Amino acid sequence: MPNIKIFSGSSHQDLSQKIADRLGLELGKVVTKKFSNQETCVEIGESVRGEDVYIVQSGCGEINDNLMELLIMINACKIASASRVTAVIPCFPYARQDKKDKSRAPISAKLVANMLSVAGD
């Protein structure tokens, strides 16, 4: 399968490896670290120019950290001229907040979807 790269976020590296193995591909190189103030830093370790990139990251566990990591990874790939970036999200973060249950309540699932969309622009 030419022009496909699969990257794993830190939430489900074992699932990402199983997907890559099934497709006969190697996982892409990515380094994720935290600065002393707990900001997330992501470095894509290989060229993604013109490639179809798939990023596997779940919204479980450390939800906010995993979501931010995913947003940064998507943006990093787009800035590096990936042809297309697809987020594979087995557990969508903030899915419980998909509708208003009272006045002035946010629809957080829509906000997350919008952030994912904007990160890929």
UniProtKB/TrEMBL annotation:
Every Ribose-phosphate pyrophosphokinase N-terminal domain range: 4-120
Keyword field: Nucleotide biosynthesis
GO biological process: nucleotide biosynthetic process
N-terminal signal peptide: none
InterPro entries found in the cross-reference section: Pribosyltran_N, PRTase-like, Rib-P_diPkinase
Cofactor dependence: Mg(2+)
Molecular function terms, GO-annotated: magnesium ion binding
Gene3D superfamilies in the cross-refs: 3.40.50.2020
Keyword tRNA processing assigned: no
One Pfam assignment: Pribosyltran_N
Family assignment from sequence similarity: Belongs to the ribose-phosphate pyrophosphokinase family.
The protein's name in its UniProt record: Phosphoribosyl pyrophosphate synthetase 1
